[in-house]
Design goal:
- The complex is a heterodimer of chains A (562) and B (158).
- Chain A has 20 helices and eleven strands.
- Chain A is of the alpha/beta class.
- Chain A has three domains: 162 residues, no CATH class; 201 residues, Rossmann fold; 160 residues.
- An eight-stranded mixed beta sheet of chain A has the order 2-3-4-1-5-6-7-8. Chain A has a three-stranded mixed beta sheet with strand order 9-11-10, covered by helices on one side.
- Chain B folds into two domains: 86 residues; 62 residues, no CATH class.
- Helices cover 84% and strands 0% of the residues of chain B.
- The N and C termini of chain B lie far apart (53 Å).
- Classes of the chains: A alpha/beta (562), B mainly alpha (158).
- Chains A and B meet through helix 9 and helix 14 of A and helix 2, helix 3, helix 4 and helix 5 of B.
Chain lengths: 562, 158
């Protein structure tokens, strides 16, 4: 430890001086100083050498405070601190995930300060990469890699590029999907009534030369031999089952991340993300599977936060926007050709999206960093694009809030009154201690990880126990209100639009808590949810015309009775 | 077609002068076959097949930089792609419109048209309309569905 650090120490009583950790920590003598410098517990913390336990590093971390403290250190002290943190991490086992995650976050704070000061950040980066190599904890490794991605170092350092690619993979895991010698692959496409009715699976696959057989019960069996363009690759016979998963869909993850099926697809409605509810209940999670799934429903990005929690290393392809039934079978058939040709994701995007798809580039492939905005791996309610600390035990299911924010975004995008440019302006930003009957969101504007100005939405913990319709509707209504106020809508229009935006959720899901929703956001007018539906269009969206009519309706309701 | 034959002849000539590996030569043959196929295939698939040829040629050029024939054929494939894309998209629209027409006719012939089916077809046409604004064929189908809907539900309510 540099002697220059010593004067900075504020020594106080140890957190638990009489109860040294068991087993005693070794090699952490100087960590006390780092804790004092970076943690913000200087008034209560001890620099008592040798008395630090891994758990001490797991205490709640105020990262903004740590950033400020790191910024105040000299280059030499930052480098020393990074070395010590990496040493500390190397003696901390996986049982202390939070301690490791905090160490990684503190290292990121040091790196950020060094980069801001244009110092040589090499020693800190080396310490971070050493920690990455030393830890086996998959969530901590993920956090380290994404923190380095956020700093833009994957473009500058080959070592960083290699570890970031694990989380933003450039290509499907062909060693797993099509191991050497593979000539046949089983695949499944989960669809349903509307998928069969509106997507011409049979014609598309037959035109491509496949044999399509209708099974009793309505499933289609497709045998599709694909000769790769590259003579160095083998021909693959795809045995594809296109199955009717029913409505609401059942088992659309059946066989996924198991030994049975490595390539799966979904081709039907999203229903604001609830299409995977049943599947997530019945399909075991798998932390390491790199199976491939084309999630081809409208705006299936709203599925991402839950799917990445269940299958953090699987390769899902999501949609950004509505998906045409016309495009689904074409995308699926081309997906098989792309896999047979061992395309990477950029090649897949070019080929699948070429020409005849109405929205050829509607897909978020696994290498697309924008996907991180929809992920919430640790469930703390903050999107992975912004989340610098893996929260080993958030104490609440913040994913419920982040999902609701994403659904509100998609509904604004669908709704003509708000316009497609309104979509994805709101980003989930965690959970706050709310009050019963109080606001359910706190919204602030700042730049996101991609450098764009966005509105960050914290969600009240009060909402996490509500029916998901009420939670989503309330969050959507407050986001809608914020949008109206930010865009100088009249108070009447803002109120009416916000109420309709949230009310649309009830028209789709028909869940509980509507009366409370009505009282909270339209206290002086009682309107039942069936009548509310008449103020939405056929697809439950808020159009400009319907919004004007609803404003008039509210005015009439409030007019004094002669 | 003429331009493709010319390109094939030119690229074959170039390949002989190059030092392409055996594998690259095989890939060039495969890429040319794809470009030929793209002319003969259904218009809806044309651009995607040209894109496959382009990707194969890029891989060939990356792995075998001395194989100049791969680069020159790639240039030609890129020109072909520009021509093919609008053709494929138009064919795709025709395909979707045919699909919609069948559905609209079924609605018109039904003694009691299904309300959900009416809504779904309307939704599909709205999607088509947003993708091909001003397309008279889409507008005509929308009017026919509206007529069916008014017959099915004179109040026009949801």
């Amino acid at each position: 430890m540099s002697p220059f650090l010593l004067p900075l120490l504020l020594v106080a009583g140890t957190a638990n001086a009489q109860d040294p950790c068991n087993p005693p920590a070794t090699g952490l003598e100087d960590l006390a100083e780092i804790m004092s410098l970076l943690y913000g517990y200087t008034d209560e913390h001890s620099a008592n050498p040798g008395n630090f336990c891994p758990d001490d590093l797991g205490r709640p971390l105020n990262l903004a405070d740590a950033d400020a403290r790191a910024a105040g250190l000299s280059e030499g002290d930052r480098n020393d601190a990074a070395e010590l943190l990496a040493d500390a991490a190397s003696t901390t086992d996986e049982a202390h995930t939070q301690a490791l995650a905090n160490a990684a976050a503190l290292l990121d704070a040091l790196l950020g300060a060094a980069m801001a000061d244009k110092d040589d950040y090499g020693p800190i980066l080396d310490a971070i990469l050493r920690m990455y190599a030393d830890t086996d904890d998959p969530m901590v490794r993920r956090q380290i890699a994404l923190n380095l991605w956020r700093r833009g170092l994957d473009d500058k350092d080959a070592r960083v590029k290699a570890i970031v690619e694990k989380y933003l993979p450039k290509a499907p895991d062909y060693d797993h999907l099509l191991p050497k010698g593979t000539t046949e692959v089983n695949a499944v496409l989960h669809s349903g009534d509307d998928g069969f009715k509106h997507s011409d699976f049979k014609a598309v696959f037959e035109r491509a030369g496949a044999t399509v057989t209708e099974e009793p019960g309505g499933d289609l069996k497709v045998v599709y031999k694909v000769k790769p363009d590259d003579p160095a690759l083998p021909e693959i016979t795809w045995n594809l089952t296109i199955r009717d998963a029913g409505w609401p869909p059942r088992g659309v993850l059946d066989g996924f991340a198991s030994d049975d099926v490595n390539v799966s697809m979904y081709g039907n409605h999203s229903q604001l993300g609830t299409s995977i509810d049943d599947a997530l209940k019945r399909t075991p999670k798998n932390a390491t599977s790199t199976d491939f799934y084309w999630m081809d429903a409208c705006k299936s990005k709203v599925f991402a936060s839950r799917l990445t929690q269940a299958f953090p290393e699987a390769h899902f392809i999501y949609t950004k926007n509505s998906e045409y039934f016309h495009d689904m079978p074409l995308a699926m058939q081309r997906g098989m050709v792309a896999l047979t040709n061992h395309y990477d994701y950029r090649e897949m995007d070019r080929y699948v999206g070429s020409g005849s798809l109405f929205q050829g580039h509607n897909y978020i492939y696994p290498d697309d960093e924008k996907k991180l905005a929809y992920f919430d791996q640790d469930g703390d309610g903050i999107s992975d694009a912004e989340d610098r600390i893996h929260d080993a035990n958030p104490g609440h299911n913040g994913e419920l809030g982040s999902r609701a924010v994403h659904i509100a975004n998609t509904y604004m995008g669908y709704s003509g009154a708000y316009g497609s440019s309104s979509e994805d302006n709101y980003r989930p930003d965690g959970v706050f201690d709310g009050q019963p009957g109080g606001p359910v969101t706190k919204i602030e504007e700042r730049k996101d990880a991609y450098g764009q100005k966005k509105y960050f939405v914290q969600v009240s913990d009060e909402t996490l126990g509500w029916d998901q319709s009420q939670r989503t509707a309330s969050i959507a209504a407050e986001i809608g209100r914020h949008w109206g106020e930010s865009h100088r809508w009249s108070a009447d229009k803002t109120e009416a639009g916000a109420f309709l935006l949230g009310g649309a959720v009830y028209d789709v899901w028909n869940g509980g808590g509507y009366d409370t929703y009505n009282k909270q956001y339209l206290p002086d007018v009682s309107i039942n949810k069936w009548d509310l539906g008449k103020h939405l269009d056929d697809h439950d969206f808020v159009t400009s015309t319907k919004l004007s009519e609803f404003q008039k309706y509210l005015k009439d309701q409030r007019a004094p009775n002669p | 077609m003429t331009s493709l034959i010319l390109v094939t002849i030119l690229s074959l000539g170039a390949a002989r002068a190059d030092t392409c590996t055996d594998l690259s030569e095989q890939r060039l043959v495969a890429a040319r076959a794809l470009l030929d196929e793209s002319i003969e295939t259904a218009a809806i698939d044309r651009s995607s097949i040209v894109e496959r040829a382009r990707i194969l040629l890029e891989r060939t050029a990356d792995e075998d930089p001395a194989c100049k024939a791969a680069k020159s054929l790639h240039k030609q494939a890129s020109r072909m792609l520009k021509e093919a894309e609008p053709i494929s998209l138009a064919a795709s629209a025709d395909d979707a419109l045919m699909h919609a027409l069948v559905r609209v006719e079924a609605l018109e012939q039904a003694s009691t048209p299904d309300r959900e089916e009416i809504e779904t077809v309307r939704f599909m046409l709205a999607e088509l309309g947003s993708h091909f604004p001003g397309d008279e064929r889409v507008d005509a189908l929308v009017r026919r569905v509206l007529a069916v809907q008014q017959g099915a539900d004179p109040r026009g309510e949801k």
